[in-house]
Fold:
Amino acid sequence: MAHDQLAPSYSDANPLFRLCRHLGWGALVNLGFYTLPTLPAVLGGLAFFQRRLESKSLALLEARPGHRVLDACCGRGHTTARLGAVGCEAVGVDVTAQQIEEARARYGRSPRAAFAVADVTALPKQADGISADGSFDRVHCLEAAFHLSPAGRRALLDEAFRVLRPGGRFVLVDFTWNTEDPGLIRLLDTHGLVRSAWQLEEFEPLARYLAHAREAGFVVRRTVDWTRPVIDRFCQLGAVLAGLASTRTGRRLLCLRWPGLREFSELDWKSVLVTIEAHRAVGRFTGYTALVLDKPQDHESAS
Structure:
């Protein structure tokens, strides 16, 4: 995915991003992890739930102080900086130069977090002087691979395997498609609102993800289904927001809590409502899965 194509997805050109920015998206850009006891925290914004999802993903990584960690598609660098703060030597890479600039502005002073512009489907042997070949203990990719083409996701798996040391681990957290036909998204997203908003072709079926991971050489250590606390609850929140945004009284209530939403015109709200409905339609066939993939030791077999 070229940076000039992807950058608008993380700007106000994307109606859903613009809405979520006012609701708390900032250092992190992910859907968040929601459980019933924590739902009241929504009134405080979405950042709390985004940090929970990040924490759960990092827990699967099991990175320890001294580990070299590649944070693939690092975005604005929050996760990279968090890895550095616990003693890892963390390298965040992203194809979008604007994201890397922001990551450096936010976290560039951290002595254990470095950032570089790089394509995760074809990692250079050197990225801004950082060796990337066979020297990482962990690779992490949280909610980003869906931007890639099917071939790109397969290349990401190959590259992660290549840059990991034997015994290393790749945690890949991504949207997955719930049927064998990922092309169904074109029928659900008839006007291309979801695909154009996030610059994606289709989501990867879980079975294909697992098959390609094994073909790359990984042992699939674990798969974790987070569809309910991520996709389902985010879509439910979207339904509540849409219900409020569909009336003037509801919009006033939203603006009382998040005053920045006052910048939205009637046309903006209509665009938001249509976009939310398109995402809910696609969401009914979308899963959310964490893959824990281990690179075998030299004496082990990946079979």
Summary: The CA atoms of residues 177 and 205 lie 4 Å apart. The beta strands are 68-72, 89-94, 113-117, 126-127, 130-131, 136-142, 164-177, 204-205, 219-225, 286-294. The first strand starts at residue 68 and ends at 72.
